[in-house]
User: Which sequence fits this backbone?
């Protein structure tokens, strides 16, 4: 018999499944994809999320397979105008970890299967849901045909286009932004090594982060959605704004995206909860989304343990809902600040703005405060 059904076998669903299995809870994770995501989008793991991942014993492996980013630089016109060290943000994890999402999912899936080899069911698409007040039953289509699964509680961790959220009829109004980006991975050719760099230029920001294997990710703000991602275009924009030459022919990942956000009106409905992007989709600029989902899962764990043990949990579910929606709203505001910082400015405004950033960064207390905000502390 299953205690908790988790819909969505991405990083958030896999993590919650392992948390529960370690506590002796019977779990089934339903994932509609046949295999893991091969596309590297989310790469940054912040200190609070690393502490959460340590609870299932995977943080050290991820650190060993990633790049700890211990500082970042703001750059303008070829000159480093500000430095942000992360040494003070955490005693245990004084860095932001850069690791490709496929690696993260591989590590999390292996841990889940170590705890229960049958916990993850792929090619499983949820088509219906019924909550009778005591149990929740999901209608599921699998490779073997139609089936039903019943559990004491259901968690929707099935992404921004959440089927669970749709079945619950939970509103999640879309907010659109005038921000569009082109990003790609290229062989390292910058002088920044394992450091991050934010190029604050008049045409718009360029962000740059190291990845394992002497690879570097470049993210360029555009004035309009990219019609078709093009490595030559991205390399040209990076060269013009940052004076860094990229080998377009050696590009290994390319993606264009526009920014929107959604915050679900509620994260709890009866015996179902939404976590991760199913509950709150925010701008990827700043790398908070996946981390926010892991922290949702960690916060939900004690409530789920009460539920499967037959203890009262209504008040705890309400507290979870309120606290995590506040956390999501805070993350959205931080993402909006990050995007505003990267928008184009004429030089007459850019120069004094960048000078102000340089002066503020020279104040240790302010620098430390911004570093904590940036790393979700």
Assistant:
């Amino acid at each position: 018999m299953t205690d908790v059904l988790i819909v969505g076998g991405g990083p958030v669903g896999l993590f919650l499944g392992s948390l529960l299995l370690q506590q002796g809870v019977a779990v089934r994770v339903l994932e509609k994809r046949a295999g893991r995501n091969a596309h590297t989008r989310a790469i940054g793991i912040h200190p609070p999320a690393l502490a959460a991942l340590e609870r299932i014993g995977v943080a050290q492996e991820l650190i060993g397979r990633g790049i700890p980013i211990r500082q970042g630089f703001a750059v303008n016109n070829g000159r480093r105008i500000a430095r942000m060290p992360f040494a003070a943000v955490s005693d245990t994890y004084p860095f932001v970890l850069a690791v490709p999402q496929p690696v993260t999912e591989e590590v999390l899936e292996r841990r889940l299967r170590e705890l229960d080899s049958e916990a993850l069911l792929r090619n499983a698409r949820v088509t219906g849901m019924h909550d009778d007040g005591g149990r929740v039953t999901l209608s599921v289509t699998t490779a073997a045909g139609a089936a039903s699964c019943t559990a004491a509680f259901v968690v929707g961790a099935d992404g921004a286009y959440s089927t669970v959220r749709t079945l619950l009829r939970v509103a999640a109004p879309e907010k659109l932004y005038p921000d569009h980006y082109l990003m790609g991975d290229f062989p390292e050719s910058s002088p920044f090594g394992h450091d991050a760099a934010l190029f604050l230029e008049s045409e718009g920001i360029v962000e740059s982060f190291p990845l394992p294997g002497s690879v570097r990710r470049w993210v360029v703000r555009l004035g309009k959605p990219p019609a078709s991602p093009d490595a030559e275009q991205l390399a040209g924009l990076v060269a013009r704004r940052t004076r860094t030459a990229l080998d377009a022919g050696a590009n290994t990942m390319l993606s264009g995206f526009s920014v929107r956000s959604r915050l679900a009106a509620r994260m709890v409905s009866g015996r179902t909860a939404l976590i991760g992007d199913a509950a709150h989709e925010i701008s990827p600029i700043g790398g908070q989304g996946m981390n926010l989902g892991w922290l949702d899962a960690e916060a939900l764990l004690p409530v789920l343990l009460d539920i499967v043990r037959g203890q009262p949990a209504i008040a705890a579910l309400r507290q979870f809902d309120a606290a995590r929606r506040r956390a999501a709203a805070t993350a959205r505001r931080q993402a909006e600040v990050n995007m505003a910082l990267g928008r184009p400015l004429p030089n007459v405004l850019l120069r004094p703005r960048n000078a102000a950033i340089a002066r503020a960064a020279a104040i240790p207390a302010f620098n430390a405060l911004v570093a904590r905000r940036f790393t979700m502390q």
Remarks:
- The mean pLDDT is 95.
- The longest helix spans residues 314-341.
- The chain has ten helices and 20 strands.
